[in-house]
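Attaching the record inline, Q. Sequence:
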Amino acid sequence: MKPEQLIIALDMQLSHCIDLIYETKDLGTMYKVGLELFVQDRHALINMLIDDRRIFLDLKLDDIPTTIRRTVRRLGTPRFLSVQGDADTVNAAIEGRHTVPGTKIIYVPTLSSREMNAQDFCKKVETAYEAGADGVVTSGWERTMNARNIGPNKTIIVPGIRLEVLSDDHKYTLTPRAALSAGADYIVVGRPISQSNTPRATVQEILHDPNI
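Structure, as predicted:
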């Protein structure tokens, strides 16, 4: 897999995030910044990643259209930005990013820790695509396959990746190989890297796995 297809989730304390970035940044991966780190960091680390175009800013924005437009205009140029809400939320995010071309608006139909039947999931994905979303965040084999079939040319980001399938707070975990074969363009890997005693080696193991 290409290095930029691997998005390392920075879901830990700021000091650990900084160490992890400096240990892996030369490998060419991307990084996911969620709400907790976004608030904690006060933008210093985030701005560095935004400038390098190596960030998935996973804030799952959902508010009235005016607020979404104004917020997106102030976020710089992350490679990807996630939103929730409805078609109006997606439209407002797209309008807001007109001043920062290049950012892809990625819709989150549901959290990977929550249940949603296939029909409702597909309906949300279709609505988001029709509203102009550049892609979706999805997890699990069936959801990823459905999202790919609905939008063959859309960007699909799959979180909840485990090097072996385990049962945890993600309802739909996949291995890197399974996620990519189901249609993922990018995979988000958190704990298998951040909790590793040798995170750089773990990243290299994923990137150079001959089975992927």
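The chain is about 40% helix and 15% strand. Strands lie at 6-9, 30-34, 55-61, 80-83, 104-107, 135-137, 155-158, 186-189.

More tomorrow.
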